[in-house]
Each structure stands twice: as C-alpha cells, then as structure tokens.
C-alpha cells in the first residue's frame, strides 16, 4: 500500500508544529510520508530523526512550494495566513498534480477568527456571532477583512474542482506548547496574542487595556487546536461527502469566549504582584502604543464565533475558560525568563 504524501508549511511554528506533532502521534502515522518546508538547515537532521523529510526554503520560494505541493495528497498550510503569494504557489502545485494524475488532493489551510473583527476599539461588544455552519453569514465578510483574500482564493480552487479545501480558523490560542517537536528543539512553543499583550505591558511597566476593554474574543488551547487539525484531517481523508469542504469547509477553533479587558485586568494585577507593574489596574494604551506594540487597534476588536461544524465532525476540545485564566501567570513567567536570557 502506498503511503499518504503530506506536505506541511509552518512546521516549526506554534500552530504548525503542534499540528504536525499530533499527526506524528497518530496510530497510522507509519502510513504517512511527511515533508516539511523549514528555514533552518540545522533543523533538517532533527526532523529527519522523527521521520519527517525537511526541505530548506521559505514561503517566498514559489517554485519550491509549487513543486512540493504537486507531489502531495494532503497539504497542511500552517504558515502566514495572509500570504497570498504562497497560497497561490501551493494551489498551482495542486492544480498541476490534478492535471497530470487526475487526483483531487486535499489542502487544510490555516486562517483565523481575525477575519471576523470589527473596529470596536475596546469600547463595546457586539451581538454578531458567526457559526462555521452559517456559510451565507461568513460569505458576507468583505474581501478587505484580515485573511479573507487568501481564504477566498483557497475556496475558489475547490470550486474549480482540482482540490478539496478545508479552512481552520483558530481564535485566541493560549497555552505553552509541550509537543514532541518542542522537546526536539525545532518548534516555537509560544503563542502571539496574549504573549504580545504581556510583552507590551512589561515594556511599559504597566498592564494595559484597549479602550474600555469591553470587546469579546473566542479562545482555544493549543492542544485542542492540534486535535482540530487531526479531526479535520481524518474527516477529509474519509472522502468528499463525509464533511463540508470549499464554501462549506470552514472550521472555527474555539471553546469559550472572554472579555479581552478581563485578561488585561488579570495581567495588570499579576504584574503588579510580581513588582513588574506600577498599578494593579490596567491603563489605556495610547494610539501610539497600539501602533507600536500591535500594529493597530485590532486587539480592541470583537470576534465572536461558534465551532459548530468543527464539533459535528467529532472534535472534542477539553480546555475551557478556566484553563485560559490559569495560563496567564505561566505565560508571564516564561516571558520574563526569555527576556532575562
């Protein structure tokens, strides 16, 4: 029996490394032939040691992406969600494969619930909640939303018929990854959103909040994100009729919702207790700080989502809001340790 050829981008990243580790731990992982595109030559032997063929390159290497995708039964695209250039390179490779072999490959593309954001600037919540089962509501999102242009390109490929597409949209991912690839020293174990808020607060020596901190975001633990990828992978491998793909192939990664201001409030108190913040109450980020630390006001946006389609295919996330709150102190401690080394 021939092996399933899987091509992974973003394999050294927080999301991609966790998804790849989960695939490697599958009972039938010996039936996979996995290739990963990585930047660092020194990590090649380490990936090889766990049965992953590592190719050195970047998402800017159009021809390399196209070539590797053209050999893949499944592509796990876990690098930059806004990289249209890379997405087109991968889709071109999958199209070539279809033209040469009449095979319809699978791409599991990583987007994010940032595609849902508004411009609340922390000053209000919203009643607008997106379900991954509500395709018309998702399709109402303008092309100008974050990630949306790439998502549309991926879905258009499914409509053409040469590939089946599945889009995973994680929300606020939290937790320090503890995977086999982290232990191997090849994966970044840290998220961006909450650590970014911590880093900004440490830099200004005071916990910060965007506006009034009233905006809402969904959240999901990194371990649950990893099982979402394997759940979608398993469902996709069963065939085109087993679960939605293309315009009906959105899978939100969320298992709870938090007020972003509450995170700011808890961080401010923790930082104050650790003698790293002047006040236990967060102060409002200035417009200049928002630009410098976050590249804009998106941290003050609302992004409300319900992972109904994801759970229908058997995804069973186990971590809840309590896990998110419990993760904040270890995240601060890890950030301080990294800054001191």
Helix-strand layout with pairing:
Layout: E1 4-9, H1 14-24, E2 32-38, H2 44-49, E3 52-56, H3 62-69, E4 74-77, H4 84-101, E5 105-110, E6 130-131, H5 135-139, H6 148-160, E7 163-170, E8 172-174, H7 180-184, H8 193-203, E9 208-209, E10 216-221, H9 222-238, E11 250-253, E12 257-259, H10 260-273, E13 283-284, H11 287-294, E14 305-306, H12 308-312, H13 321-339
Parallel strand pairs: 1-2, 1-4, 2-3, 4-5, 5-7, 6-14, 7-11, 8-10, 9-13
Antiparallel strand pairs: 10-12
What does this structure look like?
It is a single chain. The protein has 341 residues and is α/β, with parallel strands linked by helices. 41% of the residues lie in helices and 18% in strands. The protein has 13 helices and 14 strands. The protein has helices at 14-24, 44-49, 62-69, 84-101, 135-139, 148-160, 180-184, 193-203, 222-238, 260-273, 287-294, 308-312, 321-339, and strands at residues 4-9, 32-38, 52-56, 74-77, 105-110, 130-131, 163-170, 172-174, 208-209, 216-221, 250-253, 257-259, 283-284, 305-306. The strands form four sheets. It has a seven-stranded parallel β-sheet with strand order 3-2-1-4-5-7-11, with helices on both faces. Helix 4 links the parallel strand 4 and strand 5 (105-110). Helix 1 packs across helix 9 (222-238). The termini are far apart. 46% of the residues are buried.
């Amino acid at each position: 029996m021939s092996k399933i050829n899987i091509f992974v981008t973003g394999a050294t990243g927080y999301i991609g490394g966790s998804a790849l580790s989960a695939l490697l731990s599958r009972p039938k992982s010996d039936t996979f032939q996995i290739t990963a595109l990585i930047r660092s030559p020194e990590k090649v032997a380490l990936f090889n040691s766990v049965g992953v063929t590592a190719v050195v390159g970047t998402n800017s290497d159009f021809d390399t992406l196209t070539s590797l995708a053209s050999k893949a039964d499944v592509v796990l695209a876990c690098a930059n969600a806004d990289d249209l250039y890379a997405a087109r390179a991968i889709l071109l490779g999958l199209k070539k494969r279809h033209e040469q072999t009449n095979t319809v490959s699978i791409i599991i593309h990583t987007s994010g619930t940032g595609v849902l954001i508004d411009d609340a600037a922390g000053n209000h919540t919203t009643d607008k909640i997106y379900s991954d089962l509500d395709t018309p509501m998702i399709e109402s999102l303008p092309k100008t939303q974050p990630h949306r242009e790439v998502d549309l390109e991926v879905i258009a490929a499914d409509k053409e018929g040469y590939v089946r597409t599945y889009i995973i949209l994680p929300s606020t991912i939290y937790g320090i990854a503890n995977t086999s690839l982290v232990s191997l020293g090849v994966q970044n174990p840290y998220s961006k959103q909450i650590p970014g808020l911590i880093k900004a607060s440490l830099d200004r020596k005071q916990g910060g909040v965007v506006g009034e901190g009233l905006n809402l975001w969904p959240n999901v633990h990194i371990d649950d994100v990893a099982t979402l990828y394997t759940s979608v992978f398993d469902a996709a491998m069963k065939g085109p009729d087993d679960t939605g793909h293309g315009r009906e192939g959105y899978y939100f990664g969320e298992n709870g919702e938090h007020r972003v201001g509450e995170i700011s409030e808890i961080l401010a108190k923790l930082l104050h207790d650790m003698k790293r913040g002047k006040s236990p109450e967060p102060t409002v980020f200035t417009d200049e700080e928002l630009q410098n630390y976050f590249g804009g006001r998106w941290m003050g946006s609302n992004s409300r989502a319900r992972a109904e389609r994801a759970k229908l295919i058997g995804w069973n996330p186990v971590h809840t809001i309590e896990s998110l709150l419990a993760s904040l102190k270890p995240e601060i401690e890890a950030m301080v340790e990294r800054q001191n080394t």
